[in-house]
Amino acid sequence: MKGRKPREVIQFIVDTQGFEWIVFEEFLAEYTEVLSRSKLKLTDEIKEEWFEIINTVTAIIDVDVEIDFPKGQKDAKFIACALASKANFLITGDRDFTEAQTSMDTTIISVSLFKKLVCDLRE
Fold first, then answer.
1. What pLDDT sits at residue 110?
2. Residue 24 CA to its chain's centroid (Å)
3. How far apart are CA 123 and CA 119, in angstroms?
4. SS3 sequence, 21-75?
5. pLDDT tens for residues 8-37?
6. Closest by alpha carbon to 97, among 30, 89, 59?
7. Residue limits of the PIN domain (predicted)?
8. 91 with 110: CB under 8 angstroms?
9. Spatial separation of the C-alpha atoms in residues 29 and 18, rounded to whole Å
10. Which residues does 93 contact at the CB level (< 8 Å), separation at least 6?
């Protein structure tokens, strides 16, 4: 979450018609937990900015899809959300998700690659 790329990608999603940041309620708690990890070394100010962005721009959906994902049920909820929303992209830095790519139409992509292939090409 450090650096400009995540912020630029989220700003692109917010500003570009046809793009939405889809989540379900449980994601919000996980985002808060991840942003609060000391290894990220985020200042309180930066964390608060992210919390504000997340609470303002996300579209919350109900997920009624259950997924069995060998890498872990904690990650399965992200795949379920992508499937339930028929998402075009699942943007993540977690390499555990690459295994799921073969079983879904959603493109699993890193922040930097999404920025390069989608955001930068639309400018």
1. 93
2. 11
3. 7
4. EEECHHHHHHHHHHHCCHHHCCCHHHHHHHHHHHHHHEEECCCCCCCCCCCCHHH
5. 999 999 899 999 999 988 888 888 998 999
6. 89
7. 14-96
8. yes
9. 26
10. 110, 111
